[in-house]
């Protein structure tokens, strides 16, 4: 949109102007736009916009250089930082900040990083990596969504629909089921090596599943739950507990299934 002059005469040799989100990390970006717009005062709107685009390109080239090369360089630095050991300085800087969240490092509006908060907590080599991470222009709180419904809200109806799926019918590819279908000979759990790997064992009773459930507040919600089959367990849950509780419990079950697959595959 910004590059409007001789649009149809450029052919494939010239690309449309592209505004990079990284530019917003510098306050000078707004100054460059304002200055270019004032210089184009009295010109046609598209000419003013084209002037802004040219000035932004010049400024960005001097300030950031090649964006793609810079991103690759920052990604390399990030990998090196992640593989390095945490030193005493980093520990002392983060002391007392156990409850700090990523959003605490952002401005009040949540649309840009707050350098004053980042500097005391992170070493110099990590700061540019953090500042290069783009932030969303929309400020929203995190919410739980139920992916089995169009509006993201859990309902008993969508719960019963899910009960018709193969996992609830007992057709999930756990070892117990694979032995029943003569695909495997051993049904013992691949993780704990003891019990038969049924769906119930996988999502609730395996040592890996117990580690997932232990820190949560939902263990008591399973007291009295049937363990004969996952279908019985599921119907009991949707009748016994509120939608938000069931949604959280489903998330933990999915985490157990995913962890199992990551270990095996």
TrEMBL record:
Lineage top rank: taxon: Eukaryota
Pfam families given in the database record: zf-RVT
Domain Reverse transcriptase zinc-binding: 167-213
Protein's UniProt name: Reverse transcriptase zinc-binding domain-containing protein
Organism whose genome encodes this protein: Chenopodium quinoa
